[in-house]
Specification:
- A hairpin with a 3-residue loop joins strand 2 and strand 3.
- Helices cover 28% and strands 29% of the residues.
- It has one domain: Nuclear Transport Factor 2, Chain: A (Roll), CATH 3.10.450.50.
- Helix 1 packs antiparallel against helix 2 and helix 2 (28-42) crosses helix 3.
- The protein has three helices and five strands, in the order H-H-E-H-E-E-E-E.
- The protein has a five-stranded mixed β-sheet with strand order 1-5-4-3-2, covered by helices on one side.
- By secondary structure, it is an alpha+beta fold.
Length: 158
Amino acid sequence: MISTKDIELVQSKWGENLIKIGSLKKDRESCEKATEDMLNELYAFDLGEVLFKPTKAAKIQFRLNFEAAKSYFIAGNDNYKEDTGFAFQPWIQVKFENVSVIVNEESAIAMGNYFFTDPNGIKVKIEYTFLYIQDSKGNLRITLHHSSFPFNDEACVN
């Protein structure tokens, strides 16, 4: 059975990996390997479809394959020209705050805010919903990643 602690562990690994990827941005080969390792360990692309809606994607909002997700984190794919590499901010801390977690026998969903801190101490608040499934080895893997900036009514057009 999946536990909240299991989810928090995967969230922690996700944040650690994002920071690591950003720290490697000057070494493209190492950066690509770290990104691929993160996607292979934490996402379920090898098990079926993954629904990935990253925070800062406007032109191609929904990313349904490994290469599209990789591009979001580190850019460099001509099919996703809007990507600048979210991991390259760089970030020095990622903190998840789950508002709610629903655990089922073979899956779990978490929703809340995560906070990204840059080297100047500036924090960015982003909303998320992640759905996790267990693979055949019992590891939690992300099968839904939806992330967006909080609603800003001044940005709305009527």
